Amino acid sequence: MTLTTQQRNELRERMQREIDGLEESIARLEQGLNPVAPDAAIGRLSRLDTMLNQGINQSSLSQSRTRLVRLQHALKRIDDPDFGTCAECGEAIPIARLLALPECDCCVECAE
Ligand SMILES: [Zn+2]
């Protein structure tokens, strides 16, 4: 056991907050992702703009979704005795790294 109960609780809270925030921004991004209406009134250029913005939204959306899944996964594992140890080398991951990137299951060395 590398983490104290207090550290685990802190991490759990942190992850829950991040998950809530991600779910919120995913919902917002999804609302901005309505199909571009083939409406001549908005004009060709602004239609192109809209499509470009949607491309950007689409990629932050998929990034947010990936992070959300990883965080949810990490949150489920937080009570495992080996949570907080590197999946590659088995060394303890520093609490500062866990707090900054709770979804990571590798130490800095192995992540590189
Ligand atoms: Zn490692």
Automatic annotation (TrEMBL):
Q: Which domain of life is it from?
A: Bacteria
UniProt keyword annotations, A-Z: Coiled coil, Metal-binding, Zinc, Zinc-finger
dksA C4-type zinc finger locations on the chain: 86-110
**What GO molecular function annotations does the UniProt record carry, in alphabetical order?**
zinc ion binding
What Pfam families does UniProt report for this protein, alphabetically?
zf-dskA_traR
- Entries under InterPro entries matching the protein: Znf_DskA_TraR
Q: What residues form the membrane-spanning segments?
A: none
**From which residue to which does any coiled coil extend?**
5-32
Q: Which PANTHER family match?
A: RNA POLYMERASE-BINDING TRANSCRIPTION FACTOR DKSA-RELATED
Protein's UniProt name? TraR/DksA family transcriptional regulator
Q: Which organism is it from?
A: Oceanidesulfovibrio marinus
Write the lineage as a comma-separated list: Bacteria, Pseudomonadati, Thermodesulfobacteriota, Desulfovibrionia, Desulfovibrionales
